[in-house]
Amino acid sequence: MNMKKRRSLLVLLTLFLSAALLLQGCGSNAKNDNGNTSGSTTEKGENESAPKGGPVTLKVWGDLGNQAVLEEPYKKINEAFMAKNPDIKIQYDFAQNDQSLNVALQANELPDLFVVQGNKTPRMKEMVGQGFLLPLDDYKLDTSRFAEGEIDYATVDGKMYSALPSFTDTQLVYYNKELFEKNGIGEPANWDEFVQALDKLKAAGVTPISMPGKSEWDRSWLVYAMSSALANDALNAVLKSGGKVTDPALAKALQNYRDFAEKGYFGKDFIANDMAGAQFAFTNGKAAMIVDGTWNNQTYASSGLNVGRFILPNAEGKKIAAASFSNFMTYAVSAKSEHPDQAVKYIEFLNSLEAQQILEDATGLVPTLKDITAKNDEVKELGNFDEAGPAIYAVMSALASTDSNTADILMKDVIPKLFTSKITGEEAVKLLDESATYTD
């Protein structure tokens, strides 16, 4: 077992706002007149350099896994930016996922700008240490609209490296109001009422929760929500006051995940179901609920379904969200960019109210800045929680070391073994504890 270590309150404050949006998939499409694409990058060599005296072309990678949500707003954001900066052309390709980013890092062939996740994971700090990112401090960016937490997100060792976040993410329950009403179920006021609703739906022949068992990250959102609802104090204690991941509350939260699978709350054959299949089942009335992130709200809002939303309540009815900053607008500049000044102008625009309002109007995310006008009442449901707590993934990341990645063990080992009944909640926390490194 590794030497144990405990994280300080400073780590807690920076990791409080953490959870996973993960970039996934791969694809390609042709580039349109605005330099936007609906797939991977154009062939190498095209627009490699601007004609002498012509506009500079910036290659920007978009989040491929969230292309359906981001394609419309980024087309508008890029058009607005180019209208203000006619000497800069944006070649925006939805080309970034974990695989493509790893390949680009290994080959040291990053685009001018690409998505980073700030202090939600150790990745940005690692890239800074390896010299991949351009520090932005010399450009004197205006940060007056942003709070300390948003600035900390983009900062490594006292220097800023990305555009600043302006929206909050969390995981919550989306539910079919008509199925709830048909079965005499209201929005649960506490944990027991939530479990009672699951039993009632199952007895009526309705799949309670549409679960994407095949999708590594998407199947974890319920674990995020459960651990925040049932083990928030335990997660906080790990970070700031001497707690361990073997806390019984965390073991119980993870055991609930296993129990839900065994009781049939996820329906049949959920292990082979991907996120697209899970979303299809929910939006077509085959399941009463799905647990997903606020970032996918527009998917459900535009489905034609009468959708409700709630954060999982704990035993006392308190709603604690595993809240994190959204990385939908947090881009960094490659240290090898041939056009760093122009790339920073794009960062400046992403930090502006104009760009942020475009994203808000298209997605309905929960703003963290008061001057962003919320899209509609859906945002009130998305942000309806009593307290923000640390996400379980962030806590496990804080316990990782060069020898053992506790967060990876949670995602790749613990969660799949729980929903296939290979381990109990107590065995799950022991696995995490054995890989954890605690510091005072």
From TrEMBL:
PROSITE patterns: PROKAR_LIPOPROTEIN
Spans annotated as Disordered: 28-54
UniProt biased composition (Polar residues): 28-42
Entry keywords, A to Z: Signal
Coiled-coil portions: none
Keyword Transport recorded: no
Region forming the signal peptide: 1-30
Pfam families the UniProt entry points to: SBP_bac_1
UniProt superkingdom: Bacteria
Protein's recorded name: Sugar ABC transporter substrate-binding protein
Organism (species): Paenibacillus nasutitermitis
